[in-house]
Amino acid sequence: MFISRGRSFRFANNRHLAICIAFVSSTGILFSCENTDKELHDMNSKNLGVEEVKNADINYTLGGKAKAKLLSPLMLRVQDAKPYVEFPKTLHVDFYDETGAIDSRLDALYGKYYETESKVFLKDSVRVINIKGDTLYCNELWWDRNRTGLEFYTDKTVRIRRKLEIIDGVGMEARQDFKEWVIRNVTNSFIRVRNSEFPTD
Fold first, then answer.
1. d(CA 176, CA 128)
2. Of 14, 17, 53, 176, which cross-links 151 as Cys (Cβ 3.0–4.6 Å)?
3. Are residues 58 and 2 in contact, defined by beta-carbon separation less than 8 angstroms?
4. Are 183 and 160 contacting, i.e. CB atoms less than 8 angstroms apart?
5. pLDDT tens-digit map of 120-147
């Protein structure tokens, strides 16, 4: 279940959303005689096609337990043949473990949630960090809740920074908590060595 909170709108379920859309639709029909078909199409596209929520606060729960919390300064829900939700001005997600503690965090400059497929496309400065500080950097990433145990994946270049290691590669799959991951094609690997570990004369 997704619950969206914002300063502009709040839709707790699809029924409330449907009522709002039906009301606006009927209002548009009342004035249809005063507008051309093109003007009506443009009006519907602007007023009905996109719902805007500022300062969105979305909680995802499963079986009554919090699983994730998403924050974004702007959320756009597009009513299309395949409806989607867009986050054009950055998004931040906290993921929770079974105890309700945060076990990983995600940031991206852009995100797009495909409702019928229950997955999110993320791009531009994507970063995922786990509780150990291991960090994933990439430009494109998919988050698919249907892929249990491999929720994150990409076929693009990635970089993973660990405490004493940096790994570059192409293609990756990872758990949502980012405790386990696999890079399909490792291109570079660097080991960080502390200054105290360098040999001295």
1. 9
2. 176
3. yes
4. yes
5. 999 999 999 999 999 999 999 999 988 9
Asked whether residue 50 is assigned to any structural domain, the reply reads no
DSSP 196: G
* Residues in CB range of 196: below 8 A, 6 or more apart: none
**Are 78 and 50 within 8 A, CB to CB?**
yes
Ramachandran region, residue 124 (left: φ > 0; alpha: ψ -120 to 50; beta: rest) = left
Residue 59 falls within a domain, yes or no? Answer: no
Instruction: Classify 87 in phi/psi space as left (phi over 0), alpha (psi -120 to 50) or beta.
Output: beta
Give the chain's count of helices (H) and strands (E).
2, 13
Q: Which residues contact 29 (CB under 8 A, 6 or more apart)?
A: none
For 76-101, how does the pLDDT look when each residue is reduced to its tens digit (9 = 90+)?
Answer: 999 888 889 999 999 999 999 989 99
Q: What is the DSSP letter of 25?
A: H
Range of the domain at 144: 90-197
User: Which 8-state DSSP code applies to residue 23?
Assistant: H
pTM of the full predicted structure? 0.69
Instruction: Count how many domains the chain has.
Output: 1
